[in-house]
Amino acid sequence: MQKKAEFLLLRSKAKMWSLQNLLFTICIALICVTSAVGVIHVTGYLGSKVEISCSYGPGYQSYEKYLCRNDCDDSDVLITTSELTKNKYKTHDDKTARIFTAIISDLHSTDAGKYWCGVSKNWNDIYTEVKLELVPDSCCDSVTKVESYAGYSVSFSCPYESSYQNNLKYICKGTRPSICLQQALITSDNRENPRFSLDDEKMSTKFTTKISSLTQSDSGRYLCGIQRNSDLHLFCAFELKVKDHCCDTVTNIESYEGYSKSINCPYENQYRNSLKYICRGNRPSTCLQRALITSNNRENGRFSLDDEKTSRIFTLTISSLTQSDSGYYLCGVQTNSDHDVFSAVDLKVKEWCCVRSTEITGTVGHPLTLQCPYPRQHRDNRKFLCKGDHRNSCRDMVMSESRFALRDDIYSSSFSVMITKLEEADAGTYWCGSDSRWRVGNYTKIQLSVEFLQHTSTVPSTVKTPGKTVPPTSENLVKTQTSTMKALGKTQTSIMKALGTTQTSTMKALGKTQTQTPGQPVKDAALYVPFTVPPVLLLLIGILVVVVYKWKYHKVKEDEAIVDRNAPKAKGLEEVMGAMDNDIYGNQEVMMYSKKQTSKQQSACAQYEDEDEEQDYENFTTSEDIYCNENFHLANRK
Predict the structure, then answer these.
(1) What is the distance of C-alpha 587 from the center of its chain?
(2) CB count, 10 Å around CB of 638?
(3) What is the pLDDT of residues 417-440, one digit of tens each?
(4) Domains of the chain (ranges plus CATH)?
(5) What are phi and psi of 499, to 5 degrees?
(6) Considering Cα of 308, then 311, then 316, then 319, what sign does the dihedral take?
(7) Which of 86, 149, 258, 476 could, after both became Cys, cross-link 79 (CB 3.0–4.6 A)?
(8) Which helix (H) or strand (E) holds 7?
């Protein structure tokens, strides 16, 4: 009986213990359910920081709050409001809003998990469960790529849900969402920025950001952000590429000087009616301002534009190409967006001529032959030689000049042109032509120079004058010859004057030694002449030779010129001197003649005056006494 009572007692205690456990379990379950209902979800970025905010009821403003993990034992408490800062944790208690905030910095993957916001009480604390998730600090899975050019503007739009119409919008440059708001270039609350603008179109639920006056430094990743209070902000990403030149793909074309070349520029169908234009260079931002030609003005000198809308290609044609036309060209199509559409072409203009360029020098007045090889495929073409600085404007010399003769040698694939008599005007540039269309081939360009034949002469190379050396010009030679002839003339005149004076003096002397009776011959006149005339005449000739020699020597010394005369001039000088000698001998004969005519003095003088006056006394002046015997005439007057 007693054992049965003990069994019943133990059984009763067991039931009571089971009931307590059940009640405890129910209480714990109720608490957990309550906590589960109040779980706060927080998401943070690895390497960044996160804020955990927990609200509490009225009356607990002065109570201590704390953040803990796991079972919230004393060792699990991370920080309390009495500490404010501990390691990488911070707290802030906004008693007015009754919100306790804990900040965790330098987040790592191990920081993810369950946390508790606690309010300390005497018997049991008040707990709020927090679940922290960590994600990489980057954005986004999808990136929109945008391209533009330096100097242009660019816009990109960020859509959002209608529930975020009144949320803060912003844009930043970079790839880290955790710091995007702090580094925002512009926000919907602060829209003042010189080059950035933000337009929030709430009706279409998107906001648009525009960047103007682009530079290459604007290239990079941009994030459009929408702020959310209890979770991560919403982002969309853009990759902007600002090009300094255009384009990634360049079409290479080649042509030759003097030719025409067409540049084809395709475009999309939506731009059929848009403005088309072409400019030089690779700067799209200034291309329209520097356009060579547009679809509104299709002719501009050597440039023309044709827009084939059916094939969606517009074509630029450049005529009369030169090497300066080489370089980049941009085909532009104007659009309604921030930048136009471009395609690039690299044009290379090659030198048309020549396989062989040669220089030739010819002599004026002499024949000259020009050799012109030509390509074998031009064997049956008409050959020609033209003159001019450029082949497109040269003149066919064989057709226009009779002095030019062409001979074609088809076996050697060359032709020759002979100039029968080269002229000074023939100098210049010549083109050997074997194709009237001047298609590219192996042509020859000839640069012809002319020179004059140099004549040899015995004339001295220089004529010396005081202080300088004068070259032997024709003017100096003429002056030298004239001076020589004048000297010879003066010498002859001096000799004639001396002979005349001698003759007169002799006749005067004879008149004084004998008195002449009119009508009677002079007695013994012949005795005086042989003894008097020869010595005097020889003396005068000697004096004259000395005078002439000294005069010539003085003349040469004065001019300081050395004149080497050639053979003909020397011969002419000998003839002049011979003539002078003949004149001297002639005067001697006159004197001998007067010696023989001693008996007819008056008659001889009269005959001498009548017959020989013009010949022998042509160099005498009127002031000189030219009569034979002054005493004879005085006696005759008596």
Answers:
(1) 88
(2) 5
(3) 999 999 999 999 999 988 887 776
(4) 36-135 (2.60.40.10), 143-243 (2.60.40.10), 250-350 (2.60.40.10), 356-451 (2.60.40.10), 485-561+569-637 (no CATH)
(5) -65, -45
(6) negative
(7) 86
(8) helix 2-37
